Sequence to fold (211 residues):
Amino acid sequence: MSTKTNAQNSIGKRFGMLVVMSLIGSAPDKHMVVECRCDCGNTTVVPLSRLKKANGTKSCGCLIKLANTKHGKRNSRTYPIWLSMKQRCTNPKNKRYSSYGGRGITVCDRWVEFENFLEDMGERPPGLSLERIDNDGNYEPGNCTWTTAKQQARNNRHNHMITYNGTTLPLVAWSEKVNIPYDILKSRLNKLRWPIHKALTTPRCKMKKVV
Fold:
C-alpha cells in the first residue's frame, strides 16, 4: 500500500484526542501530512507518522497547556471538551464562535462550572465526542450526549444532504449505503459535476472509464 493511500485510509480515524479530517500532502521529508480536529475544538496539521507512534502527537497541544492548569481535574480527558465548549460559545475570538455563540448557542448556567458538567455527563468515554441532540439547542443537561465522530458528522448542520429515489440522507450515509468512499462521492458531485444518480450508482472501479 502506498504512503498516500495509507494516509487516505486514515481519514476519520482517531489518534488520542485527534481525528484525521483530510490529507494535506507530502512534507519535504516525504512524510504525509494530515489535518486533524482535536477534541478541544481546534485543528492542527501533523505528519501522519507522528500520530501513529506510541508516544506521538495526541492533541493539538491543549494537553500540554492543560498540564499547567491549576484546575484539580487537569488529568481528566473531559476537561478539554468542557473548555472548548465554553470557548466556542463565549469567546468571539475563537475560530468556531460564529457557528456556536455567534448564532445564539449558549452554555447553561450549571455547566459554567466544570464539576457540574462532569457530574451530569460523566467522563468522556474513549473515542467519543460531545454532541448536542438538537443542533439548534444549547449545551445543557438533556440535550447533550457522547457520540462517535462518524455520528457527529452525520448530524452536522452543514452536512451535504442528498435526495435520490425519494430518500434523503447526508453524503456520509450515502457513502456507506452504496459502498463508495466519501471522498470519491464528494469529488464526483462537486468537482466532476456528475448527476446524483450517476455519482451514486457508478461503481468505484469504473470511475475512470465513464465519460
Observations:
- The first helix runs from residue 3 to 8.
